[in-house]
Each structure stands twice: as C-alpha cells, then as structure tokens.
Amino acid sequence: MHARSWHFMASGGIGGGIGFALMEFSNGVIPAGDTRWLDVLAMAGYFAGFGLAVGAALGMTEGFVRKQAKMLRYGIVVGAVLGLAGGFIGGGLGQVIYGLVPGKNKVGSPSDIAIALDSSTSMGGWLFFGNDPRGKRKTASIKLVEKLTNQDRVAVIDFDHEAKTLLPLTRINSSQARKKAYAAINRVDSSGGTNLALGLSEAIAALSIKNPDLPNWEKRMRHIIFLTDGEGYFEPELAVRARAQGMIVHVIGLGNALSEGLLRSIAYTPDHYYPVKNADDLIETFQRILTRNINMISRDEEVAETEGPIAGIFRYLMRIISWLIVGLAIGMGQGVRENTKEDLRACSLGGLIGGAAGGALFDPLSSILTFSGGLIGRALGGIVVGASIGGSMRMVQKKLVMDSGREPTTFLKILPRSSGLVITDIEAGSDGYHNSVAASTGQNDVEVETELKRNTLLPQRPEPNGRRKPLSFFRSRYHDPSEAMRQAFQSGHYEIEDIADFFESSPEFVIQVLQT
Fold first, then answer.
1. Would the CA dihedral through 14, 16, 20, 22 be positive or negative?
2. How far apart are CA 240 and CA 118, in angstroms?
3. Nearest Cα to 266, choosing from 293, 228, 296, 294?
4. Contact 241/192 with Cβ under 8 angstroms?
5. How far apart are CA 10 and CA 366, in angstroms?
C-alpha cells in the first residue's frame, strides 16, 4: 500500500500536536533575550521542536503505511534530524524577518516606571492551563526595558497574596543595570493568591523614593504598569493617592475572568485600561503603552509602530511568512530524505504552501479559542500547520514526481534513495524469496530452484509504448510487487536488470515473475 496525501495530513497533524508541546516546553526553559540576536536564537530553538516532531512524523509515514521497518526507522531518524535543523533555521529566519517591522522616532522626557506583575497561581496554572504559563508578561517587560534610555529608571514589583520589590528604582544607564533589571523580571513566579491593593501600594512606594542627586528628579514623569489576571482585594483610595502624586497607572487585565469595572477604576483614565485575552499579545500591549503614553525615546531611537489596522495586517503577514519559512525548511528536509532532485523541489514547494496556509489559520485559531490562556487555540493551530505541511507536500510531490512520467535523479550519492529502502519478501537467496515464488506458482522450494535453473532464455522486451514512466510510478500504482514488475517490463522502457535493481530483487526472480 502506497502512502497517500491523507496519510501525510494525519501524521503531520500528530507531529504538529507533539511539536506544539515541545514548543511550549522550550518557551518555558529558554529565557527571554535582551538583544535582537538572542531573540532570534530563542525563536530558532522554539521552532526547532516543532520541526523535529513534524519531520519525524512525516519521515516515518511511508514506512509505516507500507509496513517496512527499515524505511520507517530511516524516515524517523533522517526526518527528525532534518526537521530539527529546518525548524531551527526557519524559526530564526522568521524572527529576523519579523524584526524588520518599520519603526519611527519618538522623542520625550526621561521617566520613572514601576512594573508590577501579578504572580498568583492562576498565571502559571496546571499543565500550562494558566493565563500566562509561558511567562509572556516577563518577556514583554524585558522588551520594554530594552527600549529605555540611559536617563530612565525602572522598578520591578512581584505581587500575589503579598508584594515585594524585586528591583528598587534603578537608573538604566549601563549594561550591568539592564541585566540586573532582566534578572529581577525573570524572578517573577506563579504562586499564591491575589492582593491588588498590596501590589499597587508597593508600586507607589517604589516611585515615591526621592533622589536629589538626579537633575530635575521632581519633574520626571512617573508611570505604573499594573498587570493582573483576576479579581482580588483592593482599596479604592490607593488609586486616588497615585493620581494625587502625579503617577499614571496603566492597567492590563489578562484573561477572561476579570473584574473590568474594578480594573478600569484603578487605571489613570478608562483609556489607560488594556484588556488582553491572550498572553501572546502582551508584548504589543506593552509597546502600545510605551509609544502612546510614556512618551520616551528608545535606546536606538526606533520604536515599532504598533497601532492601526495597517500595522496589524503587516504583523499578521510577517507571522505567516515565518510559518512559510518553517514549512519550506521542513519540506526541504523531506526532499533530502527522498534523495532525488525532483522530490526536493516538490517537497520544498509543498512545505512552503502548507506552511503559508497553516500559518494563515494559526493566528485566527489562537485569537478565537482564548480560554486556558490561548493554549487550546495554539495547540489546534499547531496541528493544523503540521497537517497542512504534510498534506500539501504529498499532493505536490504526487503531481510533480509520481505522475510526471520521468525517472527521478539522485540528489546526494551518500544517501540511499527512499525507494531503495523497501524490503520485500522477494530478495534473492532468502527464504522469503523462495516462499514468494512458491506462493505465486504453487511449487515447493526444490521445484523453484529447478525451475530457475531451466530459465536460461530471457523474455523478449516489448517495443516501448507511450511516455516513459518512472519505476516508482509502477510501484505506487500496483500494490502487488510482482504485478508492478510485469507492468514495468510490458511498458518496453526497462531492462530486466533495471527492474531487479529497483525492486531489490534478482534478475532470476524477475524472469520467474514474468513467466508466471
């Protein structure tokens, strides 16, 4: 039985689901980078797990369907290795492209910022079912600190049923100071209850520290970024106190179980409240707060424009391109595994198409299915991307290679052709070979040996008819290897030795098949 497109869709979907789990795991162990290139490396590692799982699943499909153990093992190993490399390269390139979002200059005055992050148990959840199990709030905070100038100061507050200042108000005027801020942010955990009052009170205290040595310190803008995912005890006079002291409170409500009325009352104005359903959107939300309200210049004087429908469409297209590159890389790996130039082109094109199609659906699925911190939506998106890559890769491969009527050419001589890994029970000299002949002729082993010795005359090859079709065409068209051999010989395009080499048999057995 030859593997069909739906086989590859199924295996690609399974691989996509496993790959999603590996992506989520890697996101939890790979810390957020503090430079653009570390971001590229982190994203490359993020997609490497997806490529490994999908590559291995697609690589084993042919061997699994045909029940060929050698082909299955070879497909798993080569598919996993090349898929891992493809996912790593594709994810890294995708991040590079995504980082090319055009920016604009933004000029303002130095500011003091207190970042207060909810660290209650509901953030991490159980088995990634929290509102922010992958720590996107920490990544978004680090991204914001990256864009602070040497004149800005930042404090980091962790709050749950209690509150603590992980980083007192610190001027970000050196690489050591920035790394200190990143380390403090990464110490935010996910345990305990939620006390909003303690969190805001701690942030107000952090910004109230006077510093006469800093020029015009009393005129500096003071901002609190207050992020929480639920309800909790709160004292309304704290919001009044923050306004009275000139502190602008930006409230981010993450998830679905929110007391929006309460959170809006904490914010400086209703416009300073930002509801966010999916933790993946936190980076853009922090960026919007930076560009719209804090009004400061970034370290490189370039802050990405994150507002407006055009910018949203552009970012969506950039994410599709990222998935497209990952699909292309995985497809190339499958083409190398098949080890023909034609398969390499076909699988690459199919992977590219599948990656683009699946990537176009990934964001909508993640946005619609927002419960469990968007986990279900992202998992379904990963399955869809894997199935799209597998199905489209096989359809293009069938159209451009299997049905082309041309014999494929080997790509790398150091690797075997995928077709050469088929182990049948008709190999010369083996018991399986004798049994196969005996089963097809009704003879026992001794009679088979005698019959083969009598076959000294080769059958005359017919005149070539029609367009030359590759031997892989006959193998896929006819499930019975003997019938495939007969049809290949009857086409008039192949010698007995060619057929024997392709089907991993002996010329004597091919003769026997043609005479039965």
1. positive
2. 21
3. 228
4. no
5. 21
Report the candidate in 189, 132, 129 with the shortest Cα–Cα distance to residue 161.
189
113, 294 Cβ separation under 8 angstroms? yes
Task: Please give the full DSSP string across 437-493, using - where no structure is assigned.
Answer: HHHHH---HHHHHHHHHH--SPPPPPPP-SS---HHHHHHH-SSHHHHHHHHHHTTS
Which CA distances in Å does 280 have to 51, 255, 277, 363, 455?
A: 21, 11, 9, 10, 71
φ/ψ (deg, to 5) at 410: -65, 140
Summarize pLDDT for 229-281 with one digit per residue, the tens: 877 889 999 999 999 998 999 999 998 878 888 999 999 988 899 998 888 88
Q: How far apart are the first and last CA of the chain?
A: 23
CA 491 to chain CA centroid, nearest Å: 45
Sorted by where each begins, the domain ranges of the chain are 5-100+311-402, 104-304, 424-514
Question: Looking at the whole model, is its pTM more than 0.85?
Answer: no
Q: Are 48 and 91 in contact (CB under 8 A)?
A: yes
CATH, domain range 104-304: 3.40.50.410
List, in sequence order, the alpha helices (H) in 99-232.
Answer: 121-124, 136-146, 175-186, 196-207
